[in-house]
Specification:
Layout lengths: L7 E8 L2 E5 L2 E5 L3 E5 L5 E5 L4 E7 L4 H6 L6 E3 L2 H12 L7 H17 L5 H17 L7 H8 L3 H12 L3 H17 L6 H7 L5 H12 L3 H9 L14
Antiparallel strand pairs: 1-4, 1-6, 2-3, 2-5, 4-7
Helix pairs in contact: 4-5, 4-6, 4-7, 7-8, 7-9, 8-9
């Protein structure tokens, strides 16, 4: 359900994954990815029943922090400093987390997020473009994030942060989605066996493709092939590239 409110929100991962779309920019909160929802932003959330996130409403912040949120990234990488803040909240007893402490915690979190805005956008976009091109070119090969970062001319950690800021996802998750998109297209070709589709789309074998499809798209190669042959479309979710 889409909605908006007159205060900022910070959404941090706890268990599972939360899909979020803010002003047309889609991504997820999970693992090492968090989200900042600015006041007045039109947004929606969706998560499985076993997922949980920390949602921090920030109705009262200092004037300096308010100015710093104007161009805050919608998605951000969670480094050791922010993870430490999450762990502190997670393991604190509710009666120990006083209003004064919550306010200080919120301002410290915003300060850490504001620091992540200091980047070189042009260079970052170029690195992401190089990474995506490398993934598409080597889709069927056994490549990892380290290989992708090297091709993009940056480190694995910087590439991770760039993908989160630019695309709202991680390099690994983006590669998984690209491979599944390719597999879905090939499954529509009756001349290719499922085993061939698996290898050509970068999966180790047919079983690996099946596990990935069940995990990411709640389907199987056989089910998807039947749907595609019936002409009703599949569950493909093409990664959204943003500049």
């Amino acid at each position: 359900m889409r909605h908006h409110h007159a205060y900022h929100q910070v959404v941090l991962p706890y268990v599972g994954q939360l899909d979020i779309e803010t002003n047309g920019q889609a991504g997820f909160v999970a693992g090492s990815v968090g989200s900042f929802v600015a006041a007045g932003s039109d947004h929606s959330f969706h998560g499985r029943s076993d997922s949980a996130c920390i949602v921090l409403d920030i109705p009262h912040i200092s004037a300096e922090d308010a100015a710093n949120t104007e161009d805050m990234p919608t998605f951000f990488a969670i480094g050791p400093d922010i993870q430490g803040l999450i762990d502190y909240m997670k393991y604190s007893r509710s009666d120990d987390f006083t209003l004064r402490l919550r306010t200080a915690w919120s301002e410290l979190l915003l300060a850490r997020l504001a620091e992540q805005r200091i980047v070189l956008p042009g260079r970052e976009r170029l690195a992401v473009s190089r990474a995506v091109a490398f993934m598409r070119e080597r889709l069927a090969q056994s490549i990892g994030v380290r290989d992708i970062a090297r091709a993009a001319g940056t480190s694995s950690s910087r590439l991770h942060e760039a993908f989160v800021r630019q695309l709202g996802t991680t390099p690994h998750a983006y590669l998984v989605a690209l491979r599944l998109d390719a597999a879905e297209r090939m499954l529509a070709d009756p001349s290719l066996s499922i085993a061939e589709v698996a290898i050509r789309s970068g999966h180790f074998d047919q079983s690996a493709l099946g596990r990935a499809l069940r995990r990411e798209r709640d389907t199987t190669p056989a089910m998807l092939r039947r749907v595609l042959r019936g002409g009703t479309g599949g569950n493909a979710q093409t990664p959204k590239e943003r500049s």
